[in-house]
Amino acid sequence: MDLSVYYDTYWRNVGDLCDLNRLQLLLAYVQPGERVLEVDCGPGVLARMMMDKGAVVEATEMSREAVERAREKGVPVQHVDLDAADGRLPYPDNTFDTVVSNSAIEHRFFHEKHLDECVRVLRPGGRLVLCLPNIAHWRCRLWLLAGRFPYMRNSPTDPSHLRFFTVHETRKLCQARGVSVERLDGSASLWVPGFYPRWLRRPPFDRLYTWLARHYPGLFARDFILVGRKGATPA
User: Which domains does the chain possess?
Assistant: First the structure.
């Protein structure tokens, strides 16, 4: 299957629709003046936000449709498919202060290669900001306990996901690559229809649940955010 072609069709159909609350959480881990790479930037919404904050941003994306839309926003982006046999980020080792991967590697056949490349181009002491859907969310745990695994759009079991992640396993993936985890954060994504009870999406419960997702992302966040620091030498 050619993922580039698949996501060309995907981005033509969904426009720039995105979870702005989640993007704001990611934006907090990027500082003005930093040299930042976003891998698989989609149509460039987050990349543009990071540029507006004052970061020096470059980006890659596997969909040519999304590349063109990101360029229309002024984002310097290159077409790169890391799942291709010769797929490789077109940057030297130790180039960037921060590398951001926002809900991307779950869509990859070769997720470990994606992480290898993200860490390779990150300078020693640089920051990896990795956002992934949380298959250990309490709702998914209840499904499995009941012997179910329904595929639900915009949830951790979205049909487009090829790989599934928990905080524990993702931490191990990062540590194996010399990245020490400094912070965990989480996005509740209460807007997802059908994933949460309706009452949980209303005040005051929505504010309480959002707090829980940020402080206990391994159980309550639809998407967890792992912030790690690359060591001086590889693991």
Answer: 3-230 (3.40.50.150)
